[in-house]
Amino acid sequence: MAKYLVLIYGNEQRWDSRSPEEQQRINDGHQAFNNNNGGAVLFGAELGATSTATSLRAGASPGHPTITDGPFLETKEVLGGYYLLEAPDLDAAIAMSKQLPEVETDHSGVEVRPLQEMN
Amino acid sequence: MQDVAAAVDLAHREEWAKVVAATVRVTRDLDLAQECAQDAYAQALRSWPSAGIPLRPGAWLTTVARNRARDLLARESAFRRAMPLLVMDDEPGPEVDLARPTVGDERLQLIFICAHPALSGEARVALTLRLVCGLTTAEVARAFLVQETTMAARITRAKKKIALARIPYRVPNRQDLPERVGAVLEIVHLIFTTGHAAPTGEHLIRRDLVDRAVELGRLLHELLPAEPDPASLLAMMLITDARSSTRTSADGRLVLLSHQDRGRWDAALINEGVGLLTWALAAGPASRFALEAAIAAVHAESPSIEDTDWAEIVGLYDLLRDCWPNPVVDLNRAVAVGLRDGPAPGLGELEPLLSEPALATYGYLSAARADFLRRLGRWSEAAAAYREALALTDNEVERVLLQDRLDEVDRQL
Asked: Looking at chain A from residue 14 to 73, which residues have their Cβ under 8 Å from any Cβ of chain B?
C-alpha cells in the first residue's frame, strides 16, 4: 500500500459564487466519496480561502523570515482542499479521485501525488 | 560465427519483449529487467558459438535473463535499491516452462504499463519502443526526431514515475479497458510506421517491428472484438503490409509505389484488411485509423498509379487532417495533390510546410520536394533538395534511391 495526496484545485471566484444548490451537490459528492472509500481515506479537509493564508519565506537573517499575507503562489487556480488516500497503486488512487465532485466541473480538478516513501 | 550473429539478431527481433516481460516478473523493476535481458543476449553471442544455437532461443534467453536477475537481486542489499518495486498482482509465478512458449499476455502487461495515461504521450511511445520492441535509445530518438540525450532523459523520467507513483504492471479492468486500449493503439501505430519505413539500417522495412505491430494489433482486436478502432488499425496495417514485398527489388533497391508489381501484392492480407475496415466503418464513425486504412485500401484496389483515384485520396486526407491534425498528414496530402493536379500545385502545397518546426529534420519533406522540382525540370533546386534528403536519412535503401535520383539530376546540370 502507498499513500497519495489528492490536491483539489479550482477557481476561487467560481467557488465563492456557488449557489446553495451547487454547494449542496459538492457536499453530497464529498459525503459519497467518503462513504464509498471508507478506510482508504486517511484524512481530508477543505481549506479556508486564500485571503486567510499567510506565507513565510527566508528573511534577511536566520530565524527572522519574511511574513506576508496571502498564498505562497499567486495563481488563478488555487488549492482548495485535499485528501490523504491509501491505495495499492496509482490506478486505484485515480479510480477514487475520479469520484470527486471537483473533477466534474470545468474550472476545477485534482492532482494525485504519491508521498515519498521514508525507508 | 555468422550463423550465431544472425540467430541472436533474429532472437532479438522475435523474443525481446517476451524475455523482458518474463524477467520483470522476477525483478519487479523495468530497468533491471531490461539490463538482464541485454546481458542474456550478450551471453548468447559468447556461448552459442561453442555450445551451439539452442533449439528454442527465446526460452534459453529468458532463463539466462531471469537467472541473472536472481543473482543480482540476491547480491543487492535492500537499502542500495534506488527505486521501489513495481506493483504487480501476485501470481502462482510459474518458472519458465521450456516446453511451452511464454503466453502473449505477459507482453500485454508490459505494453499497458508503457502506455499508461499517467505518462506523457511522448514517454509512452518511447518506453514501448525501448522495452517492448528493444530499440536502442538512439533508434527511438531518431524515430521521434529528437536528440538522443533528450530521449534518454525522457525514458528515465518515465521509468521513475512508474516506480514512484506506483503505476501497476497489470492489464486494466474491463471498465477502463477501451480508453487504455486507445492509448495502446497509438503506440502500435507508431511501431508499425517505424517498421514500415525504418529510420535507420540497411533494410527499408524492419520486418520485426512490422510483425510485432501486426501481432499486437491482432491481440488487441481479439481482446476487444466489438471495438471498431483496433479493427481499423489492424486493417490499415494489413493492407499496407500487403505491399511490403514489392517495395524493394531483388537487389534491395527501393521501388516506389508507381513501379511496384501490383500482381505480387498479398491479396489475402488485403482481403482480410478490407473486410475488417468494412466492418469497422459500419460499426462507428470513421476514426483516424479507419481513414488511414481507407487510403491504403484505395491504393491496394487500384490497378496502377495512373488509375488511382487521387481525388478520393486527397479527400480522405482532408478528413484525416480534420480528425488528426499533423504535419506529416499535411505532407502526404501535398504529395497526393501533386499526383492529382501535377508537380507545380504539389510543390505549392509543400511550401508552407518548409517552415514547420516538426518537419525541420524530416527527410521525406526534402525528398517529396526534390521529386516535384525534378519533374518541373528545376534541376539545381532539385539537386539541393536531394542532397538535403540524403543528409537526413540513415536508411541505406532510401539513400541508394536518393543518390540515383541526385546523379540523374546532376547529369542535367
From this structure: none
Label residue B81 by pLDDT band (50, 70, 90). Answer: low
pLDDT grade, residue B78 (50/70/90)?
low
- pTM (predicted TM-score): 0.74
Chain A nearest C-alpha distance from B218 (Å): 26
The total number of structural domains in chain B stands at: 1
**Domains of chain A (ranges, CATH numbers):** 2-48+72-114 (3.30.70.1060)
Q: Across residues B24-47, what is the average pLDDT?
A: 94
Dihedral sign for Cα atoms in the order B85, B169, B155, B7: positive
In a domain, B24, yes or no: no
Provide the CA B180 distance to its chain's centre, in angstroms. 19
Q: Does some domain include residue B30? A: no
The DSSP code sequence of B10-32 is: HHHHHHHHHHHHHHHHHHS-HHH
Residue B155 in domain: no
B354 falls within a domain: yes
pLDDT at residue B251 in the model: 84
> Which residues in A lie closer than 8 A to residue B109 (C-beta atoms)?
none
**3-state SS assignment for residue B172:** coil
Residue B406's domain comprises 311-410
